[in-house]
Give the backbone structure.
Amino acid sequence: MHWTTSRFLIDLSQPKVMGIVNVTPDSFSDGGQNNSVAEALRHCERLIKDGADILDIGGESTRPGAQALPVAEELLRVLPIVREAVKLGVPVSVDTYKPQVMQAVLDLGADIINDVWALRWTDTDASVRPLSGLQVVAGHPHCGVCLMHMHREPRSMQVSPMEGDVVPRVLSFLELQAHILIDLGVQKSQIILDPGIGFGKTVAQNFALLDRQRELLVSGYPVLAGWSRKSSLAAVVGVPSGNLAPQERVVASVAAALLSVERGASVVRVHDVLETVQALRVLNALKYL
């Protein structure tokens, strides 16, 4: 199986590691660490050196309770990084739900749009023509797209999380969004699905999605898993000293990434690239025994 993107045909016969590059002051785990273009690019280069197959650049935090960012501010944060990152020799993904940002980064050569809203957002800014993410992605010849499931929106998703069995509901939603894209002319090989761990789900529901992740594969689309440093990991570790800070969740994050891959994930989106790559190499070694 391959993932078709703007400049790269990504071979998914082996799991791929997507390294997170947050250029935000308020992301839950590493906000404020890459505030300048130079710092963000050094981080990109370090992730590639550590073994990242894909870079995922984001300019707006989508942590629980996060406030929306104006389009102009997101463009100021993201465009200078993308302009340089596309020269680094690996696929570049941009984590955004805003159609204007999608169009701008694709025009700069970005390979993948990674959207927590699964292209449901329509830009209604009175100063521009109404534009949807569906239009932007469908209008591009080959860009890759990651469709994620999110219950409600970042400000309210954990205030009133989903109820009941989430697995069939997540699968149904993601299949519907993918079918809409295909009806607009997008190739199936351009699409990957993300169940949205932590986005409007309880701890138990997140782990149900991990335990039953193979049920998502019946759709025929590859799956991206994003467990890195999520609060559900801290909730189950139960260390005596109390809750783990995001930076202390590395071991749990690597464990979740491995379990995701064992259950069929083609891409894992992580902060801790080096540790995840090493663990995946150990897992891969079992194939040759």
Notes: The domain at 2-288 is CATH 3.20.20.20 (TIM Barrel). The longest helix spans residues 166-183. The chain has a mean pLDDT of 91. The CA atoms of residues 282 and 288 lie 11 Å apart.
